[in-house]
Amino acid sequence: QVQLVESGGGLVQAGGSLRLSCAYSGNIFGINAMGWYRQAPGKQRELVAFIMRGGSTNYADSVKGRFTISRDNAKNTYLQMNSLKPEDTAVYYCNAEVFGRTYWGQGTQVTVSS
């Protein structure tokens, strides 16, 4: 059974940094991609960044140059967020595609004050 647990959210001032972590438990051999999504109040969930099994990455235009996704031992995933803006405020969700199925974490709140 795949489980994803996020941590590292919190309150930060604009211009600050946070590092989100996603702890993965389950079969690691079937992981095709892992990523981060976010959902702000009243808005749809949107892709922030993802990393493929081979290590290639992709980012939303709004976070390019500020956020970095990484992975260790092909299992845990991290999102380093720098130069945070108030518009980055949202619940951030970890996501994994494993053997063709999609799994989600419970989310962690990130709030950026101006």
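the 2nd protein, sequnce then structure:
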Amino acid sequence: QVQLVESGGGLVQPGGSLRLSCAASVSAFRFYSMAWYRQTPGKSRALVAGITSRGSTNYADSVKGRFTISRDNAKSTIYLQMNSLKTEDTAVYYCSLGNNAYWGQGTQVTVSS
């Protein structure tokens, strides 16, 4: 059974940084595209960043230049390095595997002074 476990969320001041991790329990992890989404109350889940099996990346316009997605196939893990955080980045962040076939449980990121 596929499991995705996110970690690294928390409370940070505006301008600060956090790194999220998502560990996947799946065979042949390296062949899957992965992504980070976020959701705030009353809104749909929105794509933050994606990474293909070959390492190509894409980002939402709102996070370009501030967030970086990466993957470590040896650890079956993806990361989201978030810098220069803004209050509007506050959300529950989810990772997904394989074109959203599977989702993690989410991790809360709160940006507040």
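The first strand starts at residue 3 and ends at 7. The CA atoms of residues 11 and 98 lie 29 Å apart.
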